[in-house]
Design goal:
Elements lengths: L15 E2 L6 E8 L6 E7 L14 E13 L4 E4 L3 E4 L8 E2 L4 E8 L6
Antiparallel strand pairs: 1-2, 2-3, 3-8, 4-5, 4-6, 4-7, 4-8
Amino acid sequence: MKDELEFFDVETVPWQPDPAASGVSERVLSREVDGAVGTRIARWAPGTETSGVIRHDYFEEVLLLEGSLHDITLDRTFRAGHFASRRPGMPHGPYRTVDGCTMLEIRSRPTDAS
């Protein structure tokens, strides 16, 4: 279960390195106890590149806020204002960013009705 939070200034949340992705830092806005799902702002440093196709067992919604992100598999570049909505198990990536990017990510668990 996620914490109940009223409005707060996200600038007060420190940037932390993402333990799963070199070159990525995150501001965790809310997260379940196990850490798998929640809401965060992720910042990719210029030159960051991931390897391999990504799949996970949660829903994920991503809104690019700044910069650009290139999907190596699709050979497409996405920019600020682009949005993705992924079901559990949907393959995506790998990615690279030349100039860096910032994105809002919302992750949620599937329910029996999903």
